[in-house]
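User: Hi! I'm working on a homework problem where we have to compare a predicted structure to a textbook description. Could you give me the structure for the chain below?
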Amino acid sequence: AETGVGLEGRFRAWHVHPEYGLLWEVDLPNGTTTQGANSLLELAFRGGVGIPTWRIGVIAEAGFTGVSTSDTYASHAGWSEFLGAYTKRPLWSANPAQGGRIDSAGVVRMPVFAAGTVRGVFLCDRLPPGDTDPSGRLYATAVAAAGLAVVSGGTIYVTYTLRSRPVS
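Assistant: Happy to help. Predicted structure tokens:
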């Protein structure tokens, strides 16, 4: 029987406030966008344009209607970015791949300076918050079942793991 390899990713996110403690913690399986899959294929099999510097962003609850595999960095009609947690999207760095998986090299920290409600996270290759430059790449999105309140003065923490799994 023929088998292939699939990739599945999971974000773990939590919000801590110095006065209130842990406010929430979620484990979010990601959906890979077609744009993200194409980026991996181009890089791995065609020597595509440079290895991306991946960054974590936060999805806002306001106006959220859903995420889609057809979402791109430039166009994602069902969601927008929450802009109250960073002035530059933080870098996601990974440990070397081992045992068919790659994990965060550390925890991404995003200080919240504007209270609001978030819905999830995303992984992209561009720095500026709110940017939708067509040259950007959106690899993955992950959303919670409902909105998650964030409090100014707190911090959102995120880790990400991507692992291979056999597919038949």
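For your comparison, note the following. The two ends are 8 Å apart (CA to CA). Residues 34 and 70 are 6 Å apart (CA to CA). Good luck with the assignment!
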